[in-house]
Amino acid sequence: MLHIETFSLGPLQTNAYLLSNADRTKGFVIDPGMNPKPLFKRIETMDIEAIVLTHAHFDHIGGVDELRKWKKCPVYVHDAEADWLTDPKKNGSARWPELGALIETDPAEYALDEGQTLTLLGETFRVFHTPGHSPGSVSLLYGDKLFAGDVLFRLSVGRTDLPGGSQRELLESIHGTLFDLPDDVKVYPGHGPATTIGYEKQNNPYV
């Protein structure tokens, strides 16, 4: 079983997740956001196997360029946002310059897609394509743990008013994919505290 650590990074308090093996010598990162120093300090002596992106909005990719060059690790992102890493207009960093510098980095090495199985640190992750917040949003299921990006939050959902967003697609992703998972699945969102599928089914006013 992998160890999971959460780092709330940058002006939007974006959750980056570090998953590591039992002796904490190897890991991989989900969504290394802006101002990633706390995360980088933690992984100073750790081998990083990969960077996996739930989507490519600027607040989730702020640390990608520095991390991949430092640790020489590949990046995974859904093909629908393949060009967002290279384009500050598409990833949103050009839209809110007051929050930080323009963000652009090389394209991802690998694509994520619906139904794909990733093997990282010897463990299996199932990929769900869950668009709505953005066209290439994905959720990653590891056992009874779901890394949902900005699709589903505790008592809230991801915004759909940004380019490529769709309220209809977001609700389809939640009701047609995430809510098919067992109620005890723990949800690790892109912002805010963790929750469970069952809790959101019963209490989330937006779904």
From TrEMBL:
Recorded catalytic activity of this chain's protein: 3',5'-cyclic UMP + H2O = UMP + H(+); 3',5'-cyclic CMP + H2O = CMP + H(+)
Pfam families referenced in this protein's UniProt entry, alphabetically: Lactamase_B (PF00753)
Needed cofactors: Zn(2+)
An MF annotation (GO) of this entry: hydrolase activity
Location of the Metallo-beta-lactamase domain: 13-191
Keywords on record: Hydrolase, Metal-binding, Zinc
SMART domains attached to this UniProt entry: Lactamase_B
Biological role stated in the UniProt entry: Counteracts the endogenous Pycsar antiviral defense system. Phosphodiesterase that enables metal-dependent hydrolysis of host cyclic nucleotide Pycsar defense signals such as cCMP and cUMP.
Name used for this protein in its record: Metal-binding protein
